[in-house]
Amino acid sequence: MATVMGREFGAWSARADREAAPDGRVKQIESPEVDAYEQGKRDALAAIARDSLGLETYGYPAPCRYKYAQILRQDYKVWLHEVAGCVIDETIAGHARGYNEVMHAEIERRHGPKVFEKASRKAGC
Q1: Residues 87, 89, 92, 93: what is their CA dihedral angle, to the nearest 10 degrees?
Q2: Phi and psi at residue 4, in whole multiples of 5°?
Q3: What whole-number distance in Å separates Cα of residue 95 and Cα of residue 4?
Q4: What is the pLDDT of residues 85-118, one digit of tens each?
Q5: Cα separation, 70 vs 68, whole angstroms
Q6: In angstroms, rounded to a whole number, what is the distance separating the alpha carbons of residues 124 and 118?
Q7: CA 25, CA 23: separation in Å to the nearest integer?
């Protein structure tokens, strides 16, 4: 089980496979990954509303990742959130994908379409 942005993923109960509709009927969700993806998008929108920009990362870090994170934080007020190491499941990946899609668009809207290229070049990636 993993906790990402205050939400637990990995140990899915029957609720994860079925959710009660307002009228009490049970509806199927597409998959835990799709549920996590949609939750990631919602979490990103909530963070943007708080004026908190960031990206979720996982996996073995590239050699320049820490310098890149420092530049994003100092120059653009964008935080990299390391949500997992190298071993992830579909829910962690789905949440990160949804979160990052929304955040990428907002960060580029605020700082320009080449913001990530600039930060990467400055970090020596």
Answers
A1: 90
A2: -125, 120
A3: 8
A4: 999 999 999 999 999 999 999 999 999 999 999 9
A5: 5
A6: 10
A7: 6
